């Protein structure tokens, strides 16, 4: 065994407050060797971030740590606060989740990177700024001198995260803690950042503690994986075993079964039921017992970590016995049954048709839009407001009971388009027909009636419910508004709705803050269903949720679709989620559709170069499946203010042909009925590309 | 009351201490305001030249002023006008400012421009000048000066409400209401306003204090409460020349004012805590 850079021994952290104490971390131990990456996974509330803060010595006031955190053999809690402070940033550094708030908006990026150099290394300001530019170059920023002088708001999310990594690297630390560093980023940007981290790690022999809830991301980077559950290490071992077929703990099984997979599209996912136990209570036996399908008599005993293989431990006494037992019995059949996805129903009646929808946002107006031009004839002053083409002539139709997935990077206009369809945003042009009736030109009264049929589910469960209203008030409002029921009948309807989203009626009297994220999302879904709509826009409806909660919400949405025959426009940046639920997928880039077709067509060639790049960027953990080829898109989506001539994707296309892509609008190429690719590359050539996803061999 | 059917049901929590104290003290101040004239040992305008500027004693608890009037009685009498002034003015600014702020924040476009530019004009005039302007054209009275002070504080309320409104508008539940085709007034008063209250309440509690002081300033200029009527602000203002010889004349109404202000602030804090379900710590 080589030298351990970080050795955490029996670390326990309890938060005290309001007269009770709750354990955030319970006797956890892990070690990171020089140059290795330890991945820490777990749902929110499992103690991941507390572990990071404990290692940094930055726990909040109410927290009581005990145990040892040995950094290069020395206990950091034995040091004085002053010594600990000297350690941070210099030898241990951290990159936080949200690049959008982690940089100070009023200080130039270069100065922020130079700060630790001046503070810890005592460098001259000028030399430090020079070094900052070198660091920016090292993290893959092409124009470091200009970026160093820029303010954070002038950089894209990916560039900000690179700048933060540069700050963390500044003093050449030996251990870098990454707390969900890619969670706020697009898949394509995430792939870029992961590539960068991989390269840095090799080049600098950097050790990393990588925290994420995304198993795919962990699988990309980590050597070892530590699975946390409710403050306990439940499984710990080499990546190949823990995230591969060798995993042993039921919780790990559950996490893996909750994950929607691109290569294994099945009807329903297998989420973990229930929620985290109350951490202020002492649980005598196994902490996962309440949610574990394998729980039996012996589980009431305290569970020690058991060795289940080389360097591999699991906190379950039945680890070996259950080794080959899948999470759910029906998971075992695998093979054909599990692969049968919902049959495509092209026969459904046409429900919603959007034609040439256009939405522009004015970005420059008023005085700044006045242009002075004395060169030409005529009046020298002209008023030229600039507007961003968020949605540029998009045409899409959705049949009854159909799920259309809408995917693309942030800034591609997918949310704007979704909101245009239900007129939450007023488009400037085009028409949206709901059963043949134009929503956009409807009178206010008629519009209100149409809204009953078209609803929306939002992304953020914390923001989508009014915190001042109880669930009953929230659900009763649409019922009364649309005249679905009156008087005592309303309460019965509320209970019905709660039942529909699998919540017990007692939730009716709760306020949003008394519920978990998944429960709030269910109430959000119930509110959308209250008016008995036929069409629902799901705007990133599962993106903010934990894997197991996400799985149960996806199942719920699929069930409701089948029960009520509602159609969804399912907007997401996550291709695995989209491909799991959608019948058809629509790929959007810079305000327009570049590819549209049945899901299975989208996932295999021929595909649009942009689809290919998106697929390449998805981090995988699937057994057997791998990405043959990594295509990386440079940069990020730039909004377009001009009329786009030629291909939308030509600015970043790795397969760009040349001049034709810039000047001629690409033709729609069709490989099968209902499948269209807007690209100049002939279909035969597109079909010839290697598949990004190696199809999973059918397990007979 | 029936027992909660399950452990996780919202429990009844004790009222916050700040609310209990705030309400208690404020109720006492209100009681003084109402019953003051009956409790006062002397008349508020009963002069006695022989007993000018006497220090506090068993007869005159807070001493006497430059005309030999009993300061204690004047403080008791003054509560009525001062409280009416402070609360009345604040309520006026609240009643005008909050709806305007909501409209400006919600509708944007020209209503916002019109309201906010109007507010800019109001804010550009110094408060005293504005008060003078309003009061100079009519005969002075307590209610007019309350109105003047209320109008002076309208811009602050509009700006505050608008900024809170803009913040709440970004929340998805407001979009959900729009997606249901709710009317503007429903969204404003049922979805947005309840979430905008906490900062408005805090501001209101502070405003009451400032309103009492500004009212006093107007009285001092002879435009509000007319001597010999007693008002805390006016009393402090009139006692200024004698602050060295007879500090009690200014100190007594000053203490009364401080107690009232503290009570109102505690009350505001407490209200905010019980009105905002997020601040109740009964998370499951």
Automatic annotation (TrEMBL), chain A:
Q: Which InterPro entries match?
A: AAA+_ATPase, ABC_transp_ATP-bind, ABC_transporter-like_ATP-bd, ABC_transporter-like_CS, Oligopep_ABC_C, P-loop_NTPase
Report any one BP term from Gene Ontology: transmembrane transport
Keywords assigned by UniProt, alphabetized: ATP-binding, Nucleotide-binding, Transport
The ABC transporter domain sits at 6-255, 352-615
Q: Gene3D superfamilies, per this entry?
A: P-loop containing nucleotide triphosphate hydrolases
Record-linked SUPFAM superfamilies: P-loop containing nucleoside triphosphate hydrolases
Task: Offer one Pfam family short name for this entry.
Answer: ABC_tran
Task: Output the Gene Ontology cellular-component terms.
Answer: plasma membrane
Instruction: Write out the GO MF terms.
Output: ATP binding; ATP hydrolysis activity
Q: How does it sit in the membrane?
A: Peripheral membrane protein
Q: Which family does it belong to?
A: Belongs to the ABC transporter superfamily.
- The protein's name is ABC transporter domain-containing protein
Source species of the chain: Oceanibaculum pacificum
Native organism taxonomy: Bacteria, Pseudomonadati, Pseudomonadota, Alphaproteobacteria, Rhodospirillales
From TrEMBL, chain B:
Membrane-crossing segments per the record: 20-40, 83-107, 119-136, 205-225, 245-268
What is stated as this protein's family in its record? Belongs to the binding-protein-dependent transport system permease family.
Q: Which PROSITE patterns does the record match to this protein?
A: ABC_TM1 (PS50928)
Q: Which UniProt keyword terms apply here? A: Cell membrane, Membrane, Transmembrane, Transmembrane helix, Transport
**What does the record say about its membrane topology?**
Multi-pass membrane protein
Q: One biological process GO term for this chain? A: transmembrane transport
Q: Provide GO CC annotations from the record.
A: plasma membrane
PANTHER family referenced in this protein's UniProt entry, alphabetically = OLIGOPEPTIDE TRANSPORT SYSTEM PERMEASE PROTEIN APPC, PEPTIDE ABC TRANSPORTER PERMEASE PROTEIN
Q: What is this protein called?
A: Peptide ABC transporter permease
Species the sequence originates in:
Oceanibaculum pacificum
Domain ABC transmembrane type-1: residue ranges: 79-268
Location in or out of the cell: Cell membrane
């Amino acid at each position: 065994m080589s030298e351990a850079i970080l050795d955490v021994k029996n670390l326990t952290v309890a938060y005290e407050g309001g007269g009770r104490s709750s354990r955030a971390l319970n006797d956890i131990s892990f070690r990171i060797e020089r140059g290795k990456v330890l991945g820490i996974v777990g749902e929110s509330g499992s103690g991941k971030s507390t572990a990071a803060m404990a290692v940094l010595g930055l726990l909040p006031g109410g927290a009581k740590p005990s145990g040892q955190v040995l950094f290069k053999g020395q206990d950091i809690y034995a040091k004085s606060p002053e010594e600990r402070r000297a350690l941070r940033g210099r030898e241990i550094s951290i990159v936080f989740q949200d690049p959008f708030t982690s940089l100070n908006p009023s200080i130039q990026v270069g100065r922020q990177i130079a700060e630790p150099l001046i503070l810890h290394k005592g460098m001259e300001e000028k030399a430090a700024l020079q070094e900052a530019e070198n660091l920016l170059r090292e993290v893959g920023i092409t124009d470091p001198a200009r970026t160093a002088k820029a303010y954070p708001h002038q950089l894209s999310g990916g560039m900000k995260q690179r700048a933060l990594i540069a700050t963390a690297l500044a003093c050449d630390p030996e251990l870098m803690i990454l707390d969900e560093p890619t969670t706020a980023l697009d898949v394509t940007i995430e792939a870029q950042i992961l590539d960068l981290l991989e390269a840095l790690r090799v080049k600098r022999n950097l050790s990393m503690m990588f925290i994420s809830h995304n198993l795919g991301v962990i699988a990309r980077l980590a050597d070892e994986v530590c699975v946390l559950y409710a403050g306990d290490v439940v499984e710990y071992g080499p990546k190949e075993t823990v995230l591969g077929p060798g995993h042993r703990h039921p919780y790990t099984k559950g996490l893996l079964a909750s994950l929607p997979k691109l290569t294994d599209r099945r009807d329903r996912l297998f989420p973990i039921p229930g929620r985290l136990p109350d951490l202020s209570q002492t649980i005598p036996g196994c902490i996962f017992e309440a949610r574990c399908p394998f729980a039996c008599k012996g589980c009431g005993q305290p569970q020690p970590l058991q060795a289940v293989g080389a360097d591999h431990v699991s906190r379950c006494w039945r680890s070996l016995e259950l080794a080959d037992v899948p999470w759910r019995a029906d998971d075992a059949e695998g093979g054909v049954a599990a692969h049968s996805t919902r049959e495509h129903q092209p026969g459904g009646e046409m429900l919603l048709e959007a034609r040439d929808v256009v939405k522009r946002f004015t970005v420059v107006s008023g005085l700044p839009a006045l242009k002075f031009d004395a060169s030409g004839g005529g009046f020298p002053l002209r008023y030229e407001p600039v507007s961003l083409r968020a949605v540029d002539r998009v045409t899409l139709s959705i049949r009854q009971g159909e799920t259309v997935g809408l995917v693309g990077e942030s800034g591609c206009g997918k949310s704007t388009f979704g909101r245009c369809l239900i007129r939450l945003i007023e488009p400037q042009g085009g028409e949206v027909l709901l059963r043949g009736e134009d929503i956009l030109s409807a009178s206010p009264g008629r519009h209100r009636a149409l809204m009953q049929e078209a609803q929306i589910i939002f992304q953020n469960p914390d923001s989508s419910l009014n915190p001042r209203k109880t669930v009953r008030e929230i659900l009763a409002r649409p019922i009364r508004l649309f005249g679905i029921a009156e008087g005592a009948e309303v309460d019965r309807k509320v209970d019905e709705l709660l039942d529909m989203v699998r919540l017990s009626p007692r939730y009716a009297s709760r306020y949003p803050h008394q519920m978990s994220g998944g429960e709030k999302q269910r109430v959000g879904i119930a509110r959308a269903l209250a008016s008995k709509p036929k069409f629902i826009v799901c705007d990133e409806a599962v993106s903010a949720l934990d894997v197991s909660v996400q799985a149960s919400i996806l199942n719920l949405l699929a069930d409701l679709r089948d029960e009520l025959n509602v159609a969804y426009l399912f907007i997401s940046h996550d291709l695995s989620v989209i491909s799991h639920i959608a019948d058809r997928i629509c790929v959007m880039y810079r305000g327009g559709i570049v590819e549209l077709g049945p899901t299975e067509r989208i996932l295999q060639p021929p595909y649009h170069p942009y689809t290919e790049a998106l697929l390449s960027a998805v981090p995988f953990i699937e057994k057997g499946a791998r990405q043959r080829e990594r295509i990386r898109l440079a940069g990020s989506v730039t909004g377009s203010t001009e009329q786009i001539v030629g291909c939308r994707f030509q600015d970043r296309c790795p397969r760009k042909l040349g001049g034709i892509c810039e000047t001629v609008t690409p033709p729609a190429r069709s490989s099968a009925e209902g499948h269209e690719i807007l690209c100049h590359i002939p279909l035969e050539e597109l079909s010839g590309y290697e598949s990004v996803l190696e199809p999973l061999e059918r397990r007979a | 009351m029936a027992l909660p059917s399950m452990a996780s049901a919202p429990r009844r929590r004790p009222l916050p201490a700040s609310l209990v104290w705030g309400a208690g003290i404020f109720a006492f101040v209100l009681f003084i305001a109402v019953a003051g004239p009956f409790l006062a040992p002397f008349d508020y305008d009963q002069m006695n030249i022989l007993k000018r500027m006497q220090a506090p004693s068993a007869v005159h608890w807070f001493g006497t002023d430059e005309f030999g009037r009993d300061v204690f009685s004047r403080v008791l009498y003054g509560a009525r006008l001062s409280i009416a002034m402070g609360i009345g003015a604040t309520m006026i600014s609240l009643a005008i400012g909050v709806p305007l702020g909501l409209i400006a924040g919600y509708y944007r476009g020209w209503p916002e421009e019109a309201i906010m530019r109007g507010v800019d004009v109001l804010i550009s005039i110094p408060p005293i000048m504005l008060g003078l302007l309003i009061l100079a054209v009519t005969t002075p009275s307590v209610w007019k000066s309350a109105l003047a002070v209320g109008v002076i504080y309208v811009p602050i309320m509009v700006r505050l409400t608008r900024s809170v409104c803009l913040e709440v508008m970004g929340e998805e539940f407001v979009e959900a209401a729009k997606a249901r085709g709710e009317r503007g007034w429903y969204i404003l008063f049922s979805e947005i306003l309840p979430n905008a209250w906490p900062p408005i309440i805090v501001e209101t509690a502070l405003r009451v204090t400032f309103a009492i002081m500004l009212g006093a300033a107007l009285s001092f200029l002879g435009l509000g409460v007319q001597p010999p009527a007693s008002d805390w602000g006016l009393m402090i203002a009139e006692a200024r020349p004698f602050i060295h010889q007879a500090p009690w004349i200014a100190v007594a109404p000053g203490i009364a004012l401080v107690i009232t202000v503290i009570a109102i602030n505690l009350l505001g804090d407490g209200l905010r805590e019980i009105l905002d379900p997020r601040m109740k710590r009964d998370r499951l």
